[in-house]
Amino acid sequence: MPIDFKFRNLEPSDGLKQHTVDKLAKIQKYVEGPIDAQVVFAVEKHLHCVDVHLHDGGEHFQGREEQEDMYASIDLVVDKLLHQLTKSKDRHHNHRRGPRADE
């Protein structure tokens, strides 16, 4: 999964990048094809913000989280994206399913 990192008002950190890659690896099992990810780290006033945009074929998912700790922001935004992906996967799965044979 190619991930594009951008840092605003913050020095690039290998620790943040590695933590984000580890967390986004969880998302790979919810999609069938390759996904592209764009992650923007920013510091606004006293908050650490993380914006993530995922492109999975024809679908787009995005999440934004603001916390006082950057690692907490990463964890929470990945949780939001996992929720969106599972909801989308369930929607597609239930949509394709026909009536049961015994009904």
Describe this structure in words.
This protein is 37% helix and 33% strand. With 103 residues, it is α+β, with helices and mostly antiparallel strands. The protein has one domain: 2-Layer Sandwich (Double Stranded RNA Binding Domain). A four-stranded mixed sheet has the order 1-2-3-4, covered by helices on one side. A hairpin with a 2-residue loop joins strand 2 and strand 3. Helix 1 runs parallel beside helix 2. The chain is globular and about 40 Å long. The model has no long low-confidence stretch (mean pLDDT 85).
> Strand percentage, roughly?
25-35%
State the CATH architecture: 2-Layer Sandwich
Helix content range of the residues, please? 25-40%
At the first level of CATH, what is the class?
Answer: Alpha Beta
Outline, from the CA principal axes? globular
Order of helices and strands: EHEEEH
For the largest beta-sheet, the strand count, sense and barrel status come to: 4 strands, mixed
H/I helix tally: 2
Put the structure in a nutshell.
The protein has 103 residues and is an alpha+beta fold. It contains two helices and four strands.
Features:
103 residues, alpha+beta, Double Stranded RNA Binding Domain, 33% strand
Question: How are the SSEs ordered, and which strands pair?
Answer:
Elements: E1 3-8, H1 14-24, E2 36-44, E3 47-56, E4 59-67, H2 70-96
Parallel strand pairs: 1-2
Antiparallel strand pairs: 2-3, 3-4
Helix pairs in contact: 1-2
